[in-house]
Amino acid sequence: MSPLLEVANLRVSFPLARGVVTPVDGVSFGIERGEALALVGESGSGKTLTGLSLLRLLPPSGRIEPGSVLRIGGTDLLALDGEALRQARGRRIGMVFQDPMTSLNPVLTVGSQIAETIRAHFPLSAREARARAEALLVEVGLGDTRGRYGNYPHQLSGGMRQRVMLAIALAAEPELLIADEPTSALDVTVQAQILELLDRLRTSRAMSMLLITHDLGVVAGRTDRVAVMYAGRIVEEASTAALFASPGHPYTRGLLASIPRLRGPRQPLRAIPGNVPVPGQWPTGCRFRPRCDRVMPRCDTEPPVVPTAEGHTMRCWLGETP
Amino acid sequence: MTNSPAAAGPLLVVRDLVKHYLPHGLFARGHPIRAVDGVSLEVAPGETLAIVGESGSGKSTLGRTILRLEQATSGSVQFEGLDVLALDRRPLQALRRKMQIVFQDPSGALNPRMTVGASIAEGMHIHGLASSGDIPLRVAELMEEVGLDPEARDRYPREFSGGQKQRVGIARALAVGPSFLVLDEPVSALDVSVQAQVLNLLLDLQRRRGLAYLFIAHDLAVVRQVAHRVAVMYLGRIVETGPTDEVLATPRHPYTQALIAAAPDPDTTARPFKLTLPGEPGDPSRPPSGCRFHPRCPHPAKDDRCRREEPALRPIGHGLTACHHAAPNP
Known about the structure:
B: 4-stranded antiparallel sheet; 12 strands
């Protein structure tokens, strides 16, 4: 069976004064039905643009290059436009972002915003849509007696607003939920609540999920698989357990070694030298080469994606068996 | 962190510090925001005290009030024996050489129209610390000390990455020769791979210069890496404080326990559904009665006393905890 979501050779480019930059440069991955994949990367890695491409929500100057493949359940997302595209956003793919305040309409009650989304996708009366919106509020943990349906966004805390965004994303019953840094703006204790809610909803709705994050701590023990992005490309992909137990790519290893730990023996942090490169200033060959502690002469040519174990691949010459 | 240099006697002593913001403006009404509501702490020379809390805990206001960037409502701050809150403009100016701050957002903290070299030198000019002829050399030394190429001194902040800008911010603070730095979430805005570089730099500078840090953070794993002691704040009050290792290994306050349980952990392999803390950090203009944490507290012994009586910090284990039900042996 082919995966629910299929992304192949995705390239996203922007024309700039100094030339065309390609912040997403040949990204390929798949997500099975019911599966959760984490896309992990630092700033400028291209993880957010990858997510936006799936919804065709790139900024106006952004362009998905010919040769890119984006398919969900066999439907070619790049061939959709107008009403078909609008239906795909929501029915097939829902999305929540880091900052719920910018995605909510400040002058409408949160309940009516959920109901409006429901009616955009299902032929329901206003009363039926309201009942369904109220059920969704219960599902995301806002079903208390204080009438959240009639609240305006500014009356809610950050965590509550993120719950409303989830209700809106779920309103059209998507097959795939994209969550882009859904908890990065929240306090630690609230982050834990939202992540648990995401886990629960994903299971109860048998939904697939693409979790986009910079935080490996959020990913561990949560998603089924992880893809690590660096400089516009996926550099390693594995099951979550395998990635944390036996990371292969020097970048993944470096990232894990640079995270301070709350438990276990305390060790000096092994920082990755240098800076995260910005799109357009990527070196030739392996893009991690200038920061890599295992660099070899052949790294100035582009490394291939090689399997290192069953279901575990990396883009590094170290994976080549001599 | 181990080997706390606390034995040296305090550099900074804060007693019952209060900072309330009164509602202001044309339609001002309602309650004052009790951002910092009776905080006492000490920092020894060469020591790092971490202040940990979520939004509304008052941790940033605490740092700013200690430095007199905010006017304290009441309480006292003593630095090297001087009464900081009573100082006039001139002696305060002199004191500012000793107490500096590094902000979370390195972009916002630097003047975009000033070269980084000029930014670093600014404090030396203001305090008359070096003759104009010496300043270029001092700037070059400082840039090297924080891991920047002195050749880059004539470039502008926009040409630097986040991590490099934070290094500029640190060099700028060091330029006037302080003995104490308030570090307000200094690595929170940085990429993970760069965070570690800046944390290592801060540790290094502390060793070399004997600096004392008040390290304001929300990330307990970061705190564990850098702080000798930690104070956990909730709605304007310290709820638990003690040596970092003890507090993190055997937290006594239910809030500290919840913070540790909620922290994202890259070493987790399974994530069983666990009971997370309900609700969100409250509103500092209307803190709950009694123990401010009681509406969210999962402690099984929570009772009417928690709702009525505000618990004071008392010695439990290696530190102090403000909880009626905290046990010496958790």
